[in-house]
Write a structure and sequence with these properties.
319 residues, mainly alpha, 11 helices, 0% strand
Length: 319
């Protein structure tokens, strides 16, 4: 692997871009950077929608919802930290990177420090998960183990998923279906069609965040041997994927209404359509890094807005 495990030490890589931070405040900022806070709507959205699906059916308990949210956030942050370290070690994060700076590649934190932080996050997720396992049994255990394994396998190991064009699929499965259906399941104890349908919209918009990221990084990923779908499909195909994700999310509430699993407030998520239109215009016509970085952050906010509106529709008009 490029960059090699030589730099798995307690000190930042010699010669890395940027100077090592001085003081607790600078180190805190480095950890915030590594955690990639703007991506955390991907962890909040499935719990919000899944919990709302249960509440709309008359089932809600605060403690399982909080435990699910803690586990989801910790797995997301652990994934981000792991990716920060392993993308650097694989040579995907270089001085020519167009996105925001990465903590490991900038020399702000060492790979060993970042990976230790990732494992700590997985540990906290496991503690939250133990309560949910006690509540709902082996399905929760299986989902949790698979989620952590997929998180690590995303950029780590001998066959990293993101480097084989499987990132989009796994994001859809784990941040969409498993996260949403699982959040409903810990409340109801059931796998319900309403939650499954809602999970597809959450998954599609979460994938859209990744699509913008990979569209921006096509050239640097190609040079590093990171064969994302964007690298495989090119600019045109990646733009079509983004448009398809947005269109699918628009379609889901109407399909749920037609299927009889969403009530007469099904139209609420469509209030996010104007934002979708503005984002689609940017992603479909712009390739400069500042525009795509802006679109990436706004796509994450779109996911949160859409999910909040869908959650409201489920609570007010769920069936």
């Amino acid at each position: 692997m490029r960059g090699g495990p030589t730099f798995l030490s307690g000190s930042p890589r010699p010669g890395a871009a940027g100077a090592a931070p001085d003081g607790a405040r600078d180190r805190w900022r480095a950890w915030v950077l590594a955690a990639r806070i703007p991506t955390l709507p991907a962890a909040v959205a499935p719990v919000l929608v899944g919990t709302a699906a249960a509440a709309g059916s008359g089932v809600f308990s605060a403690l399982p919802a909080v435990a699910a949210l803690v586990a989801s956030l910790c797995i997301q942050i652990g994934t981000n930290l792991s990716n920060d370290a392993y993308d650097f070690l694989h040579g995907a994060d270089t001085a020519g990177r167009l996105g925001p700076p990465r903590a490991t590649a900038s020399g702000l934190l060492s790979p060993k420090e970042v990976l230790t932080g990732a494992y700590a996050c997985y540990g906290v997720a496991a503690l939250a998960g133990l309560y949910l396992v006690a509540l709902r049994g082996w399905p929760v255990l299986a989902a949790g183990v698979l989620s952590v394994a997929a998180s690590l396998a995303y950029t780590a190991g001998p066959w990293p998923l993101a480097y084989r064009g499987l990132g989009d699929l796994f994001v859809f499965i784990f941040f969409g279906i498993i996260g949403t259906v699982g959040s409903d399941f810990v409340q109801t104890g059931l796998v319900r069609s309403q939650a499954v349908w809602a999970s597809t919209a959450v998954g599609l918009l979460t994938v859209a965040i990744l699509v913008v990221n990979n569209l921006r990084d096509i050239e640097t990923d190609r040079a590093a041997g990171k064969r994302t779908l964007a690298v495989r499909w090119g600019v045109r195909g990646t733009r079509l994927e983004y448009a398809g994700c947005l269109a699918g999310a628009v379609a889901v509430p109407g399909i749920m209404r037609a299927a009889g699993v969403l009530g007469d407030r099904f139209w609420l998520p469509w209030l996010a359509v104007p934002l979708m239109g503005m984002l689609a215009r940017t992603v479909l016509w712009r390739l400069d890094a500042p525009a795509l970085n802006h679109a990436l952050g706004r796509t994450a906010r779109l996911l949160l807005l859409y999910s909040a509106l869908l959650a409201l529709a489920l609570v007010l008009g769920g069936t």
